[in-house]
UniProtKB/TrEMBL annotation:
This is Olfactory receptor. The chain crosses the membrane at residues 23-47, 59-78, 98-120, 141-164, 205-225, 237-258, 270-289. The lineage of its organism: Eukaryota, Metazoa, Chordata, Craniata, Vertebrata. It comes from Mus musculus. The keyword Membrane applies. InterPro entries: GPCR_Rhodpsn (IPR000276), GPCR_Rhodpsn_7TM (IPR017452), Olfact_rcpt (IPR000725), Olfactory_Receptors (IPR050427).
């Protein structure tokens, strides 16, 4: 309400990805397929972990929480993008744009903290196995979760505080399929150089630092696991490799966006699709296909469902 005083823009026009009909049809099917698969896959993980007492351990609780986050994350931009794909004029209101930014950063920040917590969880399990259940107590898990959401919300609010009071006075065309901060800031009628630096620092460097910390800790864990010649080390190894894959898939596009933004190319638009629907889809695939316990548990849940329906 306050900003209406000096800003004339009440909605933004999204250019989408491409004007070519074939590419749009391709993107439509691609996005629908992966969006629906993300929803299904993550939903199955949440149901399996909550219903199978065998999976009631800190690692699986964190994994299920990651799936909840993925469910929210892929629903921020993808549904609107799918609905808009064949519209001539794709518009988004100022409020819609701001809330897309707010939720994607809040959820993204939370996911980042959760990925770090999952690395910590593996560190305790591998390096301090005897004290695992005392360190990763239910209280600790809850604490981690609350901290993750608070950090996500703070990060997102800090990011928006820079943007919300910018004067938008005319140009309102966003060359993207959803609102992202780097492109939005470029539309403001003021010198945004410092602001862009601040945003790069807030999103880019934080993710860069978190990424390197995670990679270093996983390399450390990998070497530790390799040195221990216990029977379960190949299982630990495959869990670690799954975690590392997810970390790379999550941070890769982020770092590309915020550390070296180059809005003139189309690469980052395709990467944005990747981030919006493909990463949330890949998480369940990576965690379940590589994990025997998870596969067994999913089968059990399915059998129970079938038995339940037969007995009705
Ligand atoms: C998220 O983690 C908390 C704390 O460990 C756990 O109680 C809860 O069941 C998890 N959420 C899901 C959906 O599994």
């Amino acid at each position: 309400m306050i900003r209406a005083n000096y800003s004339a823009v009440s909605e933004f026009v999204l250019l989408g990805l491409s004007n070519s009909w074939e590419i749009q049809v391709f993107i439509f099917f691609f996005t629908c397929l992966f969006y629906v698969s993300s929803l299904t896959g993550n939903f199955i993980i949440v149901v399996t972990v909550t219903s199978d007492p065998y999976l009631h351990s800190p690692m699986y609780f964190l994994l299920a929480n990651l799936s909840v986050i993925d469910l929210i994350f892929c629903s921020i931009a993808a549904p609107k993008m799918i609905c808009d794909l064949f519209r001539k004029q794709k518009v988004i209101s100022f409020g819609g744009c701001i809330s897309q930014i707010f939720f994607s950063h809040a959820v993204g920040g939370t996911e980042m903290v959760l990925l770090i917590a999952m690395a910590f969880d593996r560190y305790v399990a591998i390096c301090k196995p005897l004290r695992y259940l005392t360190i990763m107590s239910p209280r600790m898990c809850l604490l981690i979760l609350v901290a993750a959401w608070i950090i996500g919300l703070i990060h997102s609010s800090a990011q928006l505080a820079f943007v919300i009071n910018l004067p938008f006075c005319g140009p309102n065309i966003l060359d993207s399929f959803y609102c992202d901060i780097p492109r939005l800031v470029k539309l403001a009628c003021t010198d945004t150089y410092k602001l862009e630096l601040m945003i790069t620092a807030n999103s880019g460097f934080i993710s860069l630092i978190a990424f390197f910390l995670l990679i270093i800790s996983y390399v450390f864990l990998l070497t530790t696991v390799q040195k221990q010649s216990s029977g379960c080390s190949s299982k630990a190894l495959s869990t670690l490799l799954a975690h590392i894959t997810v970390v790379v898939l999550f941070f890769g596009p982020l770092i590309f966006f915020y550390v070296c933004p180059s809005p003139s190319t189309h690469v980052d638009k395709f990467l944005a699709i990747f981030d919006a629907v493909l990463t949330p889809f890949l998480n369940p695939i990576i965690y379940t296909l590589r994990n025997r316990d998870m596969k067994i548990a999913i089968r059990k849940v399915f059998c129970q469902c079938l038995a339940f329906r037969k007995s009705m």
